[in-house]
């Protein structure tokens, strides 16, 4: 089989699978590699686990087996339990059509394309496309408590949050105005314009002249040590591959 024929066949089979009509594979083998031909098609269907594992189109797997003989082909099928509308009469006609096409053209490509086109027509005549939409999650509605105790708790929490915000804002405003900046673990150090006053005396007012004096205790800052801031192709499915019948 040529690449263009494989691509043409894959187009039809992929669309059938996308529409959830059937998950199909075509197996082409020489007659030396096939024993019981009907059983071979059914066993391959099970082995590849073709078909949907659940849902409205469960077990919708399908297999065509084309046995290549000298100057001829022999076509068989295996169909899953999820495709009961595909009757034996319709499917047998597909087999005979492919075999007659090969006899007339001596081309396996033509036989494959003819088989797949007619198979697509028969499958779609019996099964409409089934497009499954994923459910969309609805936005959750905001529920307002109506129980008196829950309302009281909510009011208390709101008041506490507001008080905490007011305290933080007040503290930040006092820092911005240069009022106080207490150091933890010390004896009440305060700021002057040159560094912390470790003597605990607050700002040192000069006895004469303008400006502020340095700290009376001689303390200063030390820098922190921590730094700064298909044919055959991989078309296997996930279904059970249960086959109802073959021919």
How many strands, which pairing sense, and closed or not: the largest β-sheet? 4 strands, mixed
Number of strands: 6
- Outline the low-pLDDT stretches: 180-230
Overall tally of structural domains: 2
Class by SSE composition:
alpha+beta
Strand content: 5-15%
Globally, the shape reads elongated
For the termini, the CA-CA separation is: 23 Å
Helix and strand arrangement:
Layout: H1 3-18, E1 23-30, H2 37-47, E2 61-69, E3 72-80, H3 88-105, H4 108-126, H5 148-176, E4 190-191, E5 196-197, E6 243-246
Helix pairs in contact: 1-4, 3-4
List keywords for this structure.
247 residues; Diaminopimelate Epimerase, Chain A, domain 1; 2 domains; four-stranded mixed β-sheet; two-stranded antiparallel ribbon; 5 helices; 38% helix
Can you walk through the features of this model?
Helix 1 (3-18) packs parallel to helix 4 (108-126) and helix 3 (88-105) runs antiparallel to helix 4. The chain folds into two domains: 3-132 and 234-246, Diaminopimelate Epimerase, Chain A, domain 1 (Roll); 151-197. A hairpin with a 2-residue loop joins strand 2 (61-69) and strand 3 (72-80). It is of the alpha+beta class and 247 residues long. The protein contains five helices and six strands.
Quick recap:
By secondary structure, the protein is α+β, with helices and mostly antiparallel strands. The protein contains five helices and six strands.
